[in-house]
Amino acid sequence: MTHDLILFNIGQLLLPETNGKPLKGEDMNRLRVLNNAAIAVKDGLVSWIGSTEEAERLLANEKRNVKGKVVSPGLVDPHTHLVFAGSRENELAMKQAGVSYLEILAKGGGILSTVHATKNASAKELFDKAAFHFERMISFGVTAIEAKSGYGLDHETELKQLRVIEQLHKNYPIRLVPTFLGPHAVPAEYKGKEDLFLEKMIQLLDVIKEEKLAQFADIFCETGVFTIDQSRQYMMKAKEKGFGLKIHADEIDTLGGTELAVSLGSASADHLVAASDEGIACLAESDTVAVLLPGTTFYLGKDHYARARKMMDEGAAVALATDFNPGSCVTENLQMIMSLAALKLKMTAEEIWNAVTVNAAHAIGLGGKAGIMAVGKQADFVIWDVPNYQYIPYHFGVNHAESVYTEGKKRWE
Ligand code: NIG
Ligand code: FE
């Protein structure tokens, strides 16, 4: 057989392994690495993996010498708020003056100011802006991305956002998983009438299901936003309607969103900075992935990060994401998050790589499809201009991706 492409002289080929489930606890420290390796691609799939020496005997239309660099599966970013209008640089000065994230929101700013801008933007404007950020994410080595709505808080604007995500998916050869986050904040006109607002969002779930506009349903369970009981009620309805579940849980206050996520069989529980010991024990007993967002803690200027070490030591599955959004974490750079995970979450390089590949994929329903490198799987991979895989968390704030491939074709370099 003649392969379409062979990469050879790969200094380190990263082969994160999964047994069909997220990697939990100490298994997260296992990362298979092949030295002086080669891979072949045919018809968009990985067709062969072996040594550079063996690759010399294979036929291919194109052979690329990687010159000792690192090759990994494409990264997976399992939590982003990709589609929105406007920006909120004014909040940086407010934060410096000591105004908290929830105080800004309570004053009608924060998420609500982005909602205002997003309502006023056309679908074309939203698409162009989202495409700009999306392309930047890809340039950082990400080939599968979750994208949430949540800056509409009404039927029309939420659907407008979800349709932009659908359009992006059609226009880019990148895996994109849509999540409906209608209950992201309480609109001013529904203050004190949160249950009524949730009713509206639950009705909208039917339209979204019908039009296949989202795979997951998410909610912001937080003081001053939605309570545990409201979150439970909404998530149960979403589950009945066939949505996978996610939750913004225990980010600022310990409300028990982590336990709620596990009890409902959620694919992921996200943030978890304030998750209790009980919440962490629940996670460890489950396959719910803890999606940690250290970029958000960093950007909010907090000193206390999610207790990733305790989570993994107790046996939980941890993934990492950017949380890219215009307020609490303004970066598309998942590599920067890998550095924060090393420095602030004290994760090992092996845990970090598993957290941005196999476990991130499981968090968005792509377990065994994305974040892996194996014969027969889609050929989504990144060539990294680094001497070894530990180098990426170590050298922070820059882009180490040299070229990014999906389905065996170069999409960015
Ligand atoms: O995950 N915490 C709630 N939602 C987002 C922030 C959204 C925003 O500030 O615009 C988050 O951090
Ligand atoms: Fe978020």
UniProtKB/TrEMBL annotation:
InterPro entries reported in the protein's UniProt record: Amidohydro-rel, HutI, Metal-dep_hydrolase_composite, Metal_Hydrolase
Bound cofactor: record note: Binds 1 zinc or iron ion per subunit.
Sites where the protein binds N-formimidoyl-L-glutamate: Y151, N325, G327
The protein's enzyme class: hydrolase
Key words, A-Z: Cytoplasm, Histidine metabolism, Hydrolase, Iron, Metal-binding, Zinc
Binding sites annotated in the UniProt record for Fe(3+): H79, H81, H248, D323
EC number: 3.5.2.7
Reactions performed catalytically: 4-imidazolone-5-propanoate + H2O = N-formimidoyl-L-glutamate
Pathway assigned to this chain's UniProt record: Amino-acid degradation; L-histidine degradation into L-glutamate; N-formimidoyl-L-glutamate from L-histidine: step 3/3
All copies of domain Amidohydrolase-related, residue ranges: 70-400
One MF annotation (Gene Ontology) recorded for this entry: imidazolonepropionase activity
Transmembrane segments: none
Subcellular location: Cytoplasm
Cofactor(s) it depends on: Zn(2+); Fe(3+)
Binding site for Zn(2+): H79, H81, H248, D323
Pfam families: Amidohydro_1
Main subcellular localisation: cytoplasm
Residues holding 4-imidazolone-5-propanoate: R88, Y151, H184, E251, S328
Similarity remark: Belongs to the metallo-dependent hydrolases superfamily. HutI family.
Entry function: Catalyzes the hydrolytic cleavage of the carbon-nitrogen bond in imidazolone-5-propanoate to yield N-formimidoyl-L-glutamate. It is the third step in the universal histidine degradation pathway.
HAMAP family assigned: HutI
NCBIfam families: hutI
Annotated protein name in UniProt: Imidazolonepropionase
Species of origin: Metabacillus flavus
Gene: hutI
